[in-house]
Design goal:
Elements: H1 2-8, H2 16-28, H3 35-44, H4 60-72, H5 87-104, E1 140-142, E2 152-154, H6 155-166, E3 170-173, H7 180-191, H8 201-224, H9 238-252, E4 257-261, H10 267-273, H11 279-286, E5 305-311, E6 314-320, H12 330-345, E7 353-360, H13 361-366, H14 368-374, E8 388-393, H15 403-406, E9 423-427, H16 431-448, E10 452-457, H17 475-483, H18 487-498, H19 505-518, H20 557-567, H21 578-591, H22 599-612, E11 616-621, E12 636-637, E13 648-649, E14 662-666, H23 672-684, E15 688-693, H24 704-711, H25 714-718, E16 725-729, H26 744-749, E17 757-759, H27 764-776, E18 783-787, E19 812-813, E20 827-831, H28 835-846, E21 851-856, E22 858-860, H29 864-871, E23 879-887, H30 893-902, E24 909-915, H31 926-941, E25 948-950
Parallel strand pairs: 4-6, 4-7, 7-8, 8-10, 9-10, 11-14, 11-15, 15-16, 16-18, 17-18, 20-21, 20-23, 23-24
Antiparallel strand pairs: 1-2, 3-9, 5-6, 12-13, 17-22, 19-21, 24-25
Length: 951
Amino acid sequence: MMQQYTANSYLFGGNAPYVEELYEAYLDNPGSVPDNWRAYFDSMQNVPAVDGSSKPDVVHSSVIASFAERAKQGPIRVVTASTDPDMGRKRVAVTQLIAAYRYLGSQWANLDPLQRQERPTIPELDPSFYGFTDADMDIVFNISNTYFGQETASLRDLLNMLRDTYCRSIGAEFMYIGDPAEKRWLQEKLEAIRSTPSFTAEKKAHILERLTAAEGLERYLHTKYVGAKRFSLEGSESFIAAIDETIQRAGEKGVQEIVIGMAHRGRLNVLVNTLGKSPQELFEEFEGKHGDDLPSGDVKYHQGFSSDISTAGGPVHLSLAFNPSHLEIVNPVVEGSVKARMERRGDKDGAQVLPILVHGDAAFAGQGVVMETLNLAQTRGYGTGGTVHIVINNQIGFTTSDPRDARSTLYCSDVVKMIEAPVLHVNGDDPEAVVLATQIAMDYRVQFQKDVVVDIICYRKLGHNEQDTPALTQPLMYKKIGQHPGTRKLYADKLIAQGTLPADGGDKMVSAYRDAMDAGKHTIDPVISNFKNKYAVDWLPFLNKKWTDSADTAVPLTELKRLATRVTTVPEDFKVHSLVEKVLADRAAMGRGEMNLDWGMGEHLAYASLVASGYAIRLSGQDAGRGTFTHRHAVLHDQNRERWDAGTYVPLCNVSEGQAPFTVIDSVLSEEAVLAFEYGYSTAEPNTLTIWEAQFGDFANGAQVVIDQFIASGEVKWGRASGLVMMLPHGYEGQGPEHSSARPERFLQLCADNNMQVVQPTTGAQIFHLLRRQMVRQFRKPLVIMTPKSLLRNKDASSPLSELAKGAFQTVIGETDEKIVASKVKRVIACSGKVYYDLVNSRKTRGTTDVAIIRIEQLYPFPHKSFAAELKKFPNATELVWCQDEPQNQGPWFQIQHNIFESLESGQRLAYAGRPASASPAVGYSDKHNAQQKELLETAFAKLKGFILTK
């Protein structure tokens, strides 16, 4: 078998001379070989030689030359190191055996409390696979390439050490990690103690107390509120010990703030036993009592909470994120919140702020947002210094427990191998092993600032919820569960047998916890009262404000000119592309007032004025630096750069001394995770203008869960305010079904309770005032902007610089053509967006003078007063036509029809002009697009027909 391996391996066979040549070059100069080969040869230097020595290898050519010279002097006498010619093979086999247990030992680990499956056959873990027999068990080998604390060991002892380390209650997976230092660190952590905890009696008692609290709460609720949904943690009680240990150890390591994201399984337990929520408050929620401060509210197992907990390293602020039932969607929200907190503290590596994500096994393997979030972990714009993932692996989804149906991977955690995160699988019935695995995971995160997973294999005692009967579909599993005494009982009995706990110690703990529940109190209150966190954000100035509150968004002309100079200046030795050079020259002319400013310059001056005033800006999205339509150019690229990771310049980072940060991020190709991340960021940082830009507005539907469950409803459900801005390119220019519509109808359908703002600006001045209004006005609601495409370069959509020095964002823009005499107007056309310019041009072509055109720039909240005021300017108008680019069943028409009708005078009629209803947002054929565009313009000016409302 070894012969077959060496003949076919890429390191042997016909490639051997090439590899030897590479190795010679490496020994002479490590930098002379490709990176992947250098990494491989580096790892070889850490493997002891056959004789056990650890001296580094030297260039072979000099050794060969020395032997050649010696041969000229006479015959060379060979000395045999061993009398056993097979010993060399056995030494190699021992090394292979050690590697096999490091790679595959987890598959033999004792992980399942229910013992439902037999141990798989893995030949590589059997000594006989390498030719060893019982006669070899007592042979002593050098094992200095391990961390067992001894240079040699018999094969028998080595096997025991390997099995203790990799095949007992902890099954570790980490050998796929590319960094040798990380692998060595994990090997040492595990092998030095053989993955066996050695806790003090006090520590063991604390673990039991946590298990008692976890079990005690569930059983108390089960008897007090029979049949009520709570998504019980029973069978997974070790999780409470794990999260407690994570928090305490994080505090010891200097972490001061932790944000936790988890679904509903065990959430009530975490609220009470970890974050310190009052049991009495929880009981009142079960009894239907609630405050009236929220328009909607939410069920108790979606609620968030925050508190300050005492640890050995000092107080730690805990925040449990609010979340909906959409599993795993809270993950990127948590990461965004953590990122905001890190930046507020100046914590670049996550040393002070920690994200903890708690997963269910089925959701961890099944939900795509898990992969999307993991993909953010090591990126510059979204990295949070490593996340501690804890999987409550109860080996069943809703009713699916057969692994042939649950996933296509061996473990539910296999998705994390894409970022080379180590996984510590651990038996939930061994609470000490669970705590040990948690300690190692936390230490790894601190050491390497990377994600790590603790996979607690346990079981679910009850159904998916308490009204479910799981034995209907899982009779065998629930027969075993019915016979299981419970993790707390097993551990209490173990401590009693050890003499660590008195015979009645476990029962006393149970009684004490139940007494505390009867009193609506904690047995141990971990919360620090009246602790003031200097990094906490005060949201009070932004609450209970109205969208109609005024805001001074104008900027003095002299300051605008200064800012324009700064955003159009590049370093002398920086060579921009000729096309960008033209853009910068035009923008400089706009800043001098020599040209009207376009959308890109209006946007730039808004950002520049905000950062100069102390408002930070965070802009992310696919192609956000350049802009999908090459209109932004916030990041400039040196055409003479010599390194791939250098040669960029961001003018908005160089606006003035002491300015606020401007951050622009070209995001990964993801909508759902990135938008959720930015939402999470915005909920933690009201003083930063947080913007997510879609590549095309249509693509936002890939993040619909985020829009529905967080952005639109987060405040009315949970009281979580957000000032997030969504920029969604929108406009019908013949680009087909997926590149035309940002689906304004979907956002307008979600609008109620003044929950967000939906706007469609049409000039450079409008976007300037709108972006400034979002920060200067102390009003934090999500802002959805239907941004233009063709209008980015349309001269008609440009604005004089003076409009930025006066005025404000106009929710409605009335008729601007002085040739239109108000008293002669018979029809008013109301519209929003790009179609306005099509209508103006069509009116001009027709020579029509009795039709006025009004732009509604803010679709929600609907500007009733402003719109009605514009209509009253035309006292003889009897007809109002709503004109839109979108099909009739899409766009704003059905959502704002009632608002327009409300503003009509008695006898006035309301009609529609636009594309006919369609299942698709837009047609894919250019001739059909053009025909539809011509038809809707004809309809806007023709005699009223079709659907007409008369007031």
